[in-house]
Amino acid sequence: MATKLRSNNIAGIWFWLKWILVAIGGFTGSLLFWNWLLLDRLKADFKNPQIAIAWMVAVFGTWFVTLIPLMKKKETVMGHMDKQDESTVTWWLVWISLTIGSFFVSVWFWTPFIAAHFGPVRNHTNSILWIIAVFGSWLVALIPLMIFMYYKVDKAYEDARINRELKAEKRKFQDPVKIKALYIEPNKRKLRLDVTEKLKKIPRTIKSGYLVTASLKDGRKVEHVFISDQKELLGVYDQQDLTFDAQDIVDLEATDLTHPPDFTQKIWLRLDGNSA
C-alpha cells in the first residue's frame, strides 16, 4: 500500500531532481564549450590522438569540477556529515580527479610517442607495448599520490572526529539540566510524629537527611524519598510529580544503597521550590 510522502521526503526528491538536472546540464555545457573552442575557434584536428585525448580530459575534467560542490552538498543533505567533514569529501574528490587525470596524461604522452617511434598503436606488438607503458607509468605515478592522499584523507577524518567530540562536549556544558522543583508549603511537607520517631532507628544517608522507602496508607510504596532534618519531605528521585502527601506516610524503610538511584539532577524532584 502506498504511503503519503512527508515534507522532508519531498524536499529530498526535489534535491535529487536538481542534482540530476545539474549533472546532465554540466556535462552538456562542458561538451558544447570545448567543441566550440577546439573545433570551431581553434580549428583543431580531432583525428590527432593528442587532440582527441586533450578533448576528453577537458570535457570530463570540467564536468567533474562543476560536480564537486554538488557532491559535497549531497553528503550534507543526506545527513552523512556536517560542515567540517566536507574537507574529507574534498580530498577524496581531489584523489579521484588526480587518479583519472594522471591516467589520461599517461595516455596522452605514450600514444603519440609509440606511434612516432614504433609505428601504429593498432599493431599487436605496439598494443602490448602501449598497455605496458601507459599502465606502468600510471601506476608508478600513483604510488606517491596514494601516500600523499592517504595522509590527507586520514588527517581529515581524524580532524572531523575530534571536532565532533569537542562539539558534543561543548553542548554538554552549554545545556545544563536544571532541577525539577515544586513548591509544597512547609506544613504540608511535615511528617507525622509517629513516623519521625521511626527515623531514629534508620541510619542517616547523609549528614542532613535520609533516603528512604515510604509506605503509604493506601498500600503503595514510594522509593527514594529524601527526608530532611528528621521532619519534612525535601524531594523524591525518579518521580515526575508528587502523588502523595507527607501525612499519607505510615512507615519508613532505609533505602538499599547497594542499588542506589541515579543521583543526577535530571531525575531529582525537589519539593521546596528551589531549582538552583
The beta-strand count equals 6
Please state the average pLDDT score: 76
* Overall 3D form: rod-shaped
Q: Give the domain tally.
A: 2
Give Rg in angstroms. Answer: 37 Å
Q: Strand-and-helix sequence, N→C? A: HHHHEHHEEEEE
What share of the residues lie within helices?
55-70%
Major sheet details: 6 strands, mixed
List low-confidence stretches. Answer: 1-9
What strand line-up does the widest sheet have?
A: 1-6-4-3-2-5
Assess the beta-strand content as a share of residues. 5-15%
Quote the distance from N terminus to C terminus: 53 Å
SS element count, helices: 6
Q: Helices and strands: which structural class?
A: alpha+beta
Short description:
The protein is α+β, with helices and mostly antiparallel strands and 276 residues long. Helix content is 57%, strand content 12%.
Describe this structure in words.
The protein has two domains: 8-174; 180-270, no CATH class. Strands 1-6-4-3-2-5 form a six-stranded mixed beta sheet, covered by helices on one side. The protein has helices spanning 7-41, 49-77, 86-117, 124-174, 186-189, 193-199; strands spanning 180-181, 209-216, 221-228, 232-237, 249-254, 268-270. Helix 1 (7-41) packs antiparallel against helix 2, helix 2 runs antiparallel to helix 3 and helix 3 packs antiparallel against helix 4. It contains six helices and six strands, in the order ααααβααβββββ. It has 276 residues and is of the alpha+beta class. The radius of gyration is 37 Å and the shape is rod-shaped. The two termini are 53 Å apart.
